[in-house]
Amino acid sequence: MAQANKELGAGDVAPDFTLPVTQGGDIDTFSLASKAGSPVVLFFYPKDNTPGCTIEAIDFTAHLSEFTKHGVSVFGISPDPAKKHIKFQEKHALGIPLIADEEQTALTAYGVWLEKSMYGKKYMGVERSTFLIGKDGKILRIWRKVKVAGHVVEVLEAAKELV
């Protein structure tokens, strides 16, 4: 499992990874390096079919054409398995590819796999976060502890500045 040496910040090279990705009912392999030369949004979310994650994924899908118009690719990442991603995409007509990180490789490398606490019980989980990565593979902006309402529009506005 990848270890995050330090918290990533703007200007750092985005950690590369190769993981399963789902789109249109298919499972393929995705490598961040394959997107070199074009900007990318990676949004890390805790779990398919939960209220906040569903709203966020639907919102990214609703704005996908605008991201695409500006040459920006959008990918969601969670620790859910690829087959669960496909069901999530089909249930909510999601147009964004979803990356399955069951072993928390990218989640750890990006520093979003953290100890969390609910009702006094500690557990490991995903801190909802979004990374905007530039054409050169460097992180341009990071949103941590994301509140879903209005988030996608904020990311889109930042992405538009790249053009």
Short descriptors:
alpha+beta, Glutaredoxin, 7-stranded mixed β-sheet, 9 strands, 27% helix, 29% strand
Structural class, from secondary structure content? Answer: alpha+beta
Query: Please, what is the oligomeric state?
Result: single chain
Percent helix:
25-40%
Largest sheet: 7 strands, mixed
* Low-pLDDT residue intervals, each spanning 5 or more residues: 1-5
CATH superfamily: Glutaredoxin
Mean pLDDT: 93
Number of strands: 9
Strand percentage lies at 25-35%
Report strand order across the widest sheet.
2-1-5-4-3-8-9
Task: Please tell me about this protein's structure.
There is one protein chain. This protein is of the alpha+beta class. It contains five helices and nine strands, in the order E-E-E-H-H-E-H-E-H-E-E-E-E-H. The strands form two sheets. Strands 2-1-5-4-3-8-9 form a seven-stranded mixed β-sheet. It has a two-stranded antiparallel ribbon with strand order 6-7.
Write the layout of secondary structure elements.
Blueprint: E1 18-23, E2 26-31, E3 40-44, H1 51-62, H2 64-69, E4 73-78, H3 82-92, E5 98-100, H4 105-109, E6 113-118, E7 121-126, E8 129-133, E9 139-143, H5 151-160
Parallel strand pairs: 3-4, 4-5
Antiparallel strand pairs: 1-2, 1-5, 3-8, 6-7, 8-9
